[in-house]
Sequence to fold (176 residues):
Amino acid sequence: MKGTFTIILLFLSFTASSETVWSKVGKEYSLDPVLLYAVALKESRRWNGKSSSSPWPWTLNIGKGMRFDTKEDAHAELSKQIGLGKKNIDVGMMQVNLIYNGHRVSKPSDLLDPETNIRVAAQILSENIRNSKGDIYLAVGSYYSRIPSRSKAYAEHVLAMVSKMKDTEVERILNN
Fold:
């Protein structure tokens, strides 16, 4: 089952130094890059054929998930929804919610930048881990919901993905 995850190395996976964004941000916040990637998969997975998938950077959720082919299309829809007075919008591959975490960026469209989106999510996860006194299930679950039944199922799913990706090519690539 470890081969189930195929990583698609989009343009956003590497910084100029060839270090992955996942590794770079993970180091900054003392988080496992595989955990960050698993959260991104849970939040914005887009299938690329039958057997491979990747987090999708131009994902919005405004009561329903929407994936856009381009950053410009996602930006146009985000602007439109904000113009209509919508505030409860999840943005980007980590689905950062504007109501609760919009204050972490200067403007909502900043969250359509993959590295910014991952960095904001890492801030949230890092705070959750600190606030939960290291209880990783509580911390990961709280990223999604403070309702125990919802947060428990979310954490179990994300941490199961982390477990499946450990000791695989995916982990090796993410930790580069």
Q: What stands out?
A: The chain has a mean pLDDT of 90. The chain has one domain: 2-170.
